[in-house]
Amino acid sequence: MKKKYILCLVVISIMFLFVLAAGTGYGVWLATNDSTEKVSTTLNCFKVYFSGSDIIEMRNINPVVNEEGLETAPNTLTITNICEDKKELQVRLNILNDSTVDVNALTIQAAGNIEKEVSLYKNLSNAKSTEEDVIQSKIIGLVLVEPNETVRTNIKLWFDEKKAPNLDKDLFLKARFELIDTESSAKASFADYLITNTSAIEKKGSPNLTQASFQDEGMYTANTDEGKTYYYRGVVNNNYVKFADNMWRIVRVNSDGTVRLILDKSSAYQKYSTQVNYMDYTGLNYLYNDEMVNNDISNYLNNWYNEVIVNRDLDKYVTNGTYCNDSSYTTTNYHTYFSAYDRLINGQGPSIICKETNADFGGKFNQKIGLISADEVALAGGYFGTNNQNYYLYNGENFFTLTPAEYYYYNAYVFTVSNTGALQTTKVNTEYGIRPVINLVSTVTVSGSGTISDPYTIDMN
Fold first, then answer.
1. For residue 231, which of 396, 448, 457, 392 has the smallest C-alpha distance?
2. What is the pLDDT of residue 33?
3. CB within 8 Å of 430: residues ≥ 6 apart
4. What pLDDT does 39 receive?
């Protein structure tokens, strides 16, 4: 009887351990989504298996905090190099034109052979897809695979509750993984990296330019003398560029695919002009004794450009751009008001179409270096008389713009940005910061994600 009792206990214990093991295995399977691959594809030297499908569909989206997002089941990519040489594969996530949800809150994390910390999809490096149904493409990461080696990456996707707390349940996401053999892929230009979904930007319409911007508004479009431009507004954390041993911020992408940059910090503090007693001194240049001469600010910028750009053999990456030193004006009761005064103070709103001028100073310039205009500051999120430490042009410094403001009581004024981020007017003989502006050629390609810790860097050739 005792032997039977012991035998029963042994059998029960074995069954218990078996069930426990099976249950534990099932739990791990749920956590890793390590199911039998259903979809496979062959790309040059790579055989790729997807745990479910290369298509991602999310409906009835329920945003969650990141801690919960990290618990979601991953999409697993298993990649085998079937060639005899080490190869690199680029893994992208493409948003398809069937999607109806705003992907600003889409969050991604990858573990395995691609390690990607929790990141917003919008902050990943842009790519240019050749697939017609793609409206936006981002690079998740690169996979380097030895011959006959098999590697695996788990990719998790969710919507961040803090970025989109109240998503409409009828909206849905449709996306697709795209895999590109790095050797055979043509790298997108800088402009293509920055602008991947022009229709979505244009659908936003115009922002409210009657006030400062304190929020992350992304990109908008506006018309210039040359065509359509795409500009950043408000809080921007992914428009940093490291170039010529300096940190810059992207202002906008010009109509010809060139990219306009402004130095993140002032290169010097000096006077716009040592002369103040005539309105001509608001110009980049002015007529003196029947000869056109450069103002002090123009001489400084040219010298800085030669020292920092030309002497480093970087001039080939910079192209001529249009700089508006709008010197058109009207005079009332001995008080001269430049056109930008009406636009930015009297409420007409900013414009980056440069007005024609009859003045013998200032105007529109086509050259390698200049300053930002007050209208561009307003588009970026600045506003006259309003402190704003949130938008990306704020750097805690007083700095000059290229825009004449007014002339009265024998004093010439230009628009400046204060150390509190407000647009204001300042005498030209005041010592303020100088933040040079340049335009990168349209053919440059870049690496990096544009954050301050991983700024865009130009691929030197």
1. 392
2. 35
3. 271, 272, 416
4. 65
Question: Do the domain assignments include residue 438?
Answer: yes
Pair 47, 80: CB distance under 8 Å: yes
Beta strands 125-126 and 134-145 are antiparallel
What is residue 68's predicted lDDT score, i.e. its pLDDT?
Answer: 93
Which residues are bridge partners to 218 per DSSP? 233
**Helices and strands counted in the chain (H then E):** 7, 31
| pLDDT at residue 34 in the model | 36
What's the pLDDT at 126?
A: 79
Total number of domains in the chain: 2
CATH code where residue 67 lies: 2.60.40.1180
- The two three-digit tokens of residue 445, written as one number: 């390609």
Residue with tokens 């192209």: 319
Name the stretches of the chain with pLDDT < 70: 1-39, 183-186, 461
Asked if residue 31 belongs to a domain, the reply is no
- Joined together, the tokens standing for residue 111 give 């573990």
- If you search the block for the tokens 């998503």, which residue do you land on? 167
Say if residues 435 and 394 touch (Cβ distance below 8 Å). Answer: no
C-alpha–C-alpha distance, residues 47 and 218, integer Å: 38
pLDDT of residue 181: 78
Q: What's the farthest any 2 CA atoms get from each other in the chain? A: 124
Q: Domain ends where: 185, 211, 235? A: 185
Secondary structure string (H, E, C) spanning 189-214: CHHHHHCCCHHHHHHCCCCCCCCCCC
Co-location of 94 and 206 in the same domain: no
CA atoms within 13 A on the CB side of 22: 6
Cβ–Cβ under 8 Å, residues 259 and 230: no
Mean pLDDT of the chain: 88
In degrees rounded to 5, what are phi and psi of residue 389?
A: -100, 15
Beta strands in 20-133 (DSSP E): 39-43, 46-50, 55-58, 75-81, 87-96, 106-112, 116-120, 125-126
Spatial contact of 295 and 284, defined as CB atoms under 8 Å apart: yes
pTM: 0.72
Q: Tens digits of per-residue pLDDT, 19-74?
A: 333 333 222 222 233 334 456 777 777 888 888 888 999 999 999 999 999 999 99
The answer to whether residue 22 sits within a structural domain is no
By residue range, what is the domain housing residue 55? 36-185
What's the rounded Cα separation, in Å, for the pair 31 and 332? 74
The confidence score (pLDDT) of residue 454 equals 93
pLDDT at 35: 37
| Per-residue pLDDT at 305 | 98
Token reading at 388: 């704003």
Residue 46 lies in a domain: yes
